[in-house]
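Notes continue from the previous slide.

Worked example: a multi-chain complex. Inputs as given:
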Amino acid sequence: MARVSPVRDRVPAPTPEELKRRRSRSIAIALALGALALLFYVVTIAKMGPQVLNRPL
Amino acid sequence: MAPALSSLTPTHGPDALAAHPPSLGEVSDYIALLKPRVMSLVVFTALVGMVVAHSAVHPVIAFASLIMIAIGAGASGALNMWWDADIDALMTRTRKRPIPDGRVRPDEALAFGSILAAGSVLALGLIANWLAASFLAFTIFFYVAVYSMWLKRSTAQNIVIGGAAGAFPPMIGEAAVSGTVSLETFVLFLIIFLWTPPHFWALALVKSSDYARAGVPMMPNVAGADATRLQILLYTLVLAPCGVAPLFLGFGGWVYAMVSIIGGFAMIALSVQVLRLRTGEPAIRAAQHLFGFSILYLFSLFAALLAEHGLGLMRPLGWHV
């Protein structure tokens, strides 16, 4: 059976510049997802009203 | 028959990685795909639609709706750039955009725009209501499929009909906070709709060689510069009275009256200049002046309404019919 060469043999390794850009994109995606999670939380509280927090522990 | 490209391009595994090299795009390139300046105009006009509606909706809901409208507008921009990458590469005004410049791959822009479009519509439906979400979905569809894919390359009326996409945001804004659409925001729709041809044709007069190179049938390239100048004046003669309509519908006060009347006369005067000065540098300057002032005119009309309805500066004129 023919041996399939590993990915690293066929795809050039990312340059430092590409790694830097990938990192900045990852940070931006994380920030955007965090902001969306916060927005949906605040919207949920606004739609359901303050009573959503008033429950027996 | 040649096999489809998709059957030759591996979709998974090591070969797929080799076929799709790592993205070179920076965060700023993805922001550029969203057309931030168009986005800001959409947010601004949608906000005015919300304020004019005088709804008692929770401010957080209104704010979140505005964010989703902005994301939907940005998604339209990304999908437009994905579709128009070939002609963007031929025009000086657009050749530095992320796709023609090679900083973002077309398939990345398509995925980015599609996900944002679907996400913004879904979120607006859940946050506000499904009327607003349907309006947003239709606006994205209209801008991408009707304007970008169909009208832009096939008719000189491209920006006249396509202008509707840019005119919908006040109605989306009102629908988001009130669940309905009124005559007031329909008039705001009409103002933006009638403003679009003079605005873009003034630009097209200056950039006609750019559009000709890209094969986009803008009015100056199809009907000629003089016919375009006449149409600019005709549209402005309809736009200016439409601009003062809020005074007679009771939602424009003193501030709006001053802005709309003075601005309307200035728009007509600049359009007459464009019609009068037909050759050389003065003709280019006249078109540039109209293009620049048209932005100020539309901004001023909506800013006046925002000040009157949002900041309590409304002093009725009593011209309500």
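Summary box: Chain A has a mean pLDDT of 82. The helical segments of chain A are 7-10, 16-48.
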